[in-house]
Design brief:
The protein is an alpha/beta fold. Helices cover about 30% and strands about 15% of the residues. It has a 7-stranded mixed beta sheet with strand order 3-2-1-4-5-8-7, sandwiched between helices. A two-stranded antiparallel ribbon has the order 6-9. Strand 4, helix 6 and strand 5 form a beta-alpha-beta unit. It is globular, with a radius of gyration of 19 Å.
């Protein structure tokens, strides 16, 4: 009896290969974009981010008056497909990558730690009552950059962090375009929330209007969203040299993944979730 040959996959090699591909992709995207200082859409490029976040983040950080060269990301996945891998492995920033999946977090720590000893990999399912676990691992509560993308209790986690004097200078947060451009809404708090629990896949997170209201009350300024309609960016004007009023920016964009499953935009997506429990941010 002949046995099929075994296939052995070296996950370390795959990570290193993905690192090389990400660096090459970022270099190509950055070199071929038509950069315009006042047009936020032209800032976008992707090296390790899912959309154009890497370019926007780099441009906003370049406008900091004083830098800590430190980041915090909640929802860091496997350490290579997120909003801080570019900072960690290309720009050599230090920081904390927090991930709720124990396998992804452990693998990131094992494979990537040697590439930047200043990055800490923390496995934690983040809840408002447990944000102290994250803050205790942070070198500073005023990092240059903060990213939050956990597909669920984002607003409630952000509330707890900022109430604890967490004050990043540049912020990137995921928003849910299915709520529309103006509504200030989020899902109510619950333990172990998962957006997959709802059949449409649209019931999760925070509206863009909700984030704008939340950050405005904290003294932050809205900068833009990226063109694929997933992330919104805010800056602390005390630390960022940026004339927000003079920007040509994207005020709202439909989530491209939502449109793939539910064509027609937010006006057709909203009725699928409007009857579910939601909390007004006021």
């Amino acid at each position: 009896m002949l046995l099929a040959p075994a296939n052995f996959v070296n996950s370390n090699f795959l990570h290193v290969n993905r690192m090389s591909m990400g660096c090459a992709r970022g270099a190509l995207n950055a070199a071929t974009r038509r950069f315009q200082p006042r047009n936020t859409a032209s800032w976008e490029f992707s090296a390790f981010s899912q959309n154009g976040e890497d370019g926007i983040i780099e441009e906003l950080l370049s406008r900091l008056k004083v830098q800590t060269r430190y980041f915090v990301e909640i929802g860091a996945a496997d350490g290579l497909e997120n909003n801080t891998a570019y900072l960690a492995f290309v720009k050599k920033y230090s920081g904390v990558m927090v991930e709720g999946d124990p396998l992804k977090s452990r693998h990131a720590k094992r494979v990537l730690w040697a590439m930047n000893h200043g990055v800490h990999y923390l496995h934690a399912f983040v809840e408002p009552a447990k944000i102290g676990i994250i803050l205790d691992r942070c070198r500073t509560r005023t990092p240059d950059f903060f990213s939050l993308d956990i597909d669920g209790m984002d607003f409630h986690v952000a509330q707890a962090l900022f109430a604890a004097d967490f004050r990043p200078r540049v912020v990137c947060v995921e928003y849910n375009s299915a709520y529309g451009p103006k509504a200030a809404l989020t899902v109510p708090y619950q333990n172990s929330f998962g957006y997959g629990d709802r059949r449409s896949g649209l019931y999760y997170g925070v509206s863009l209007g909700g984030w704008q209201l939340f950050f405005a009350r904290l003294g932050y300024e809205f900068v833009t969203v990226e063109s694929n309609g997933v992330n919104a960016f805010f800056v602390d004007p005390v630390h960022v040299d940026l004339d927000v009023a003079g920007l040509v920016r994207i005020d709202f964009a439909e989530n491209c993944a939502h449109q793939y499953v539910h064509p027609g935009g937010w006006t057709e997506q909203w009725p699928l979730i409007s009857g579910l429990p939601l909390v007004s941010i006021d």
